[in-house]
Design brief:
Elements (H helix, E strand, L loop, with lengths): L11 H8 L4 E5 L5 E2 L14 E5 L3 E10 L10 E8 L4 E6 L12 E9 L2 E8 L2
Antiparallel strand pairs: 1-2, 1-3, 4-5, 4-7, 5-6, 7-8
Length: 128
């Protein structure tokens, strides 16, 4: 992985999956609870054992904001979204290639991996 700012021991698997175009979610190996962001211990049963599950990459937007970078005012605004994945976990990401200017509440989306400063990153686009 070329952008080490995005990886820590608890989430290295996430970025390794993203590098291969796969959306991985951490799963408790004992009770099966899915969690994101990754954590060393299951909040449901307290287990330290975990593995991963491949996510479908499909979900719905729970909430969103239009965000301008404070140091680059000429940049186009980003649409930052909270996605409820079909598997039940939530991810914060950006909406890309939106066909309209909102509102985006409850919009069906699908993951769309793109290069972001040298790292394959999961963004989301409107589902067809």
């Amino acid at each position: 992985m070329s952008d080490t700012r995005r990886s820590a021991p608890d989430d290295a698997f996430f970025w390794e999956g993203a590098a291969d175009g796969v959306l991985l979610i951490q799963r408790c190996a004992d009770c099966g609870t899915l969690r994101h962001p990754p954590a060393p211990m299951c909040g449901t049963c307290g287990s330290l054992a975990w593995d991963t599950q491949v996510a479908s990459g499909r979900g719905r937007i729970v909430t969103w904001i239009s965000s301008l970078h404070p140091n680059r005012p000429d940049d186009e605004a980003r649409i930052v979204i909270l996605v409820q994945l079909d598997e039940g976990t939530r991810l914060v990401s950006n909406l890309v290639d939106s066909p309209h200017e909102g509102p985006y509440d409850d919009l069906a989306v699908v993951v769309d991996f793109r290069d972001d400063r040298g790292t394959n990153t999961p963004f989301f686009r409107v589902a067809q």
